[in-house]
Design a protein that fits this description.
Elements (H helix, E strand, L loop, with lengths): L3 H15 L4 H13 L1 H24 L1 H7 L1 H24 L25 H22 L2 H10 L11 H31 L2 H5 L1 H21 L6
Subcellular location: Cell membrane
Protein name: LysE family translocator
Membrane topology: Multi-pass membrane protein
Length: 229
């Protein structure tokens, strides 16, 4: 691990980098606006879970393979681009639905004793899992994240460190914890803004804008070259 001064610089750099909007932030914000703070935070946790894949891969050298192998980079790149395009088209083709209880924090509709719970309540766990899975795939299928960790984290590992892989994992975990905090902040802020009447009336257009942005990120990723070449 770096000393206290370098660790502080690492944390500050990570916070600044997490403020930069990208497909991960767009995924979190879009779900927070449409489905409430809980869905946004779950999306943030899914993104962070995908981040752990890149951290572990970089620590064991898989990211080095992506950096040097054009074929490996291309496979992951096209998979990630295809998924982002799919999410974008799904938003463009779908209909904006009102918020459901379990996501937005609104009280459930009343139902009699012994009767079945309302459908929105029953569907909430499976929908949250779908949100988590989508956030995971949005991050895990982006090879540029793997290259980023391979380029960014080693700058804060001392050349004389005896266990560089463990130091990489430790710094990666610190970075990811920062990511959880920042992305949850994006989710809570977006959910708060979505409570306004103007935002509720604009959900249809917000879905369309988010869909176009996802497709733009997908096309950008599809056209991206390996940064190390």
């Amino acid at each position: 691990m770096p000393d206290a001064q370098h660790l502080l610089l690492f944390v500050l750099a990570g916070l600044l980098l997490n403020l930069t909007p990208g497909p991960d932030v767009l995924y979190i914000v879009s779900h927070a606006i449409r489905q409430g703070a809980r869905a946004g935070v779950v999306a943030a946790l899914g993104v962070s879970a995908g981040c752990f894949v890149h951290i572990a891969a970089a620590a064991v050298g898989v990211s080095a393979l992506l950096a040097t192998s054009a074929a490996a980079f291309a496979v992951l790149k096209w998979a990630g681009a295809g998924y982002l395009l799919y999410v974008g088209m799904k938003l463009l083709a779908g209909k904006s639905a009102p918020k459901r209880w379990g996501f937005a924090g609104a009280p459930p509709p009343a139902y009699g004793l012994g009767s079945a719970p309302p459908p929105a309540y029953e569907e909430a766990p499976s929908q949250l899992w779908s949100v988590f899975r989508g956030g995971f795939l949005t991050n895990a299928l982006n090879p540029k994240v793997a290259i980023f960790f391979l380029a960014f984290v080693p700058q804060f590992i001392a050349p004389q460190a005896q266990h560089k892989a463990l130091a990489f994992l430790a710094l990666g975990i610190v970075f990811n914890l920062n990511t959880v905090v920042m992305n949850s902040g994006w989710a809570l802020a977006a959910a708060w803004i979505a409570r306004t009447d103007a935002a509720q009336r604009s959900l249809h257009w917000l879905d369309r804008v988010a869909g176009l942005m996802f497709m733009g990120f997908g096309l950008k990723l599809a056209l991206a070259e390996n940064p190390t070449h």
